[in-house]
Design brief:
Elements: E1 5-10, E2 22-23, E3 26-27, H1 28-42, E4 48-51, H2 61-71, E5 78-80, H3 88-94, E6 104-106, E7 110-114, H4 129-141, E8 146-150, H5 161-164, H6 171-179, E9 184-189, E10 196-200, E11 203-207, E12 214-215, E13 224-225, E14 230-236, E15 242-248
Helix pairs in contact: 2-3
Protein name: Ser/threonine protein phosphatase
Organism: Reinekea forsetii
Keywords: Hydrolase, Iron, Metal-binding
Length: 263
Amino acid sequence: MPRAHTLVQITDPHLHGHAEGTLLGMNTERSLKLILELVQSEVADIDLIIATGDIAQDSSLQAYQNFLSFLAPLPAPMRWIPGNHDNPSHMAIAGKGLDHAEAIVDLGEWVVVLLDSTVTRRVHGHLAADQLAILEQALIQYADRHVLVTFHHHSVSLQSRWIDQIGVRNNDELKALLDQHSCVRAVVCGHVHQASDQVVDGVRYLSTPSTCVQFQPLSQDFGIDPLGPGYRKLVLNPDGTIDTAVSRIDGVDFDIDFSQTGY
């Protein structure tokens, strides 16, 4: 019997290997733990957690081990992908023997494809030939399913000059591939530390708040948004539609250094 599947997206925790680590003044371990408590209180049955990059700020092995230990109380499978701050080798060591790095998740009526959009020692994104090949093969193999694609960087404009400069720079190649297949329902990303939801050429593009500091939307230069940390819940319906909402932490005072001009 076809049924809906519930996903939780956790993105951009920017953890350190030690509990005192911060990003732009905010303690990132504290904010992630509060988000995970919020998830547990709001989402009863989770089919899949997707962690969409920048798991660590300091790229330390301990940060990834900490992340896995923090998520352990959530009774759901998890898949993670690297962001521009991450160390894929340390992610692989932390996740050895686990299935966290699998690129394809079959959920029945839906298939989730997780790609690596990172460029070594660069902030911007690029979907390399091997990643596009993974996507193309999945779209051919699962042409009769609904497909959700996810990677760290954003691939459509958010009308923010500084953020759009550090998105996926070969979006034309991605779009050309998506245009050849009608099964992709949504593309979900992290990276931008803000929520957005737009439809481009029939495909829904979603970005999700960080579990720590937020970036000011529609800002031409770097800016910090005072909104609280958040996560995204996605309900993938059998008919191909998606019900989704962002939840944020309210009523908690976080230390944020609004004087910073970059991160």
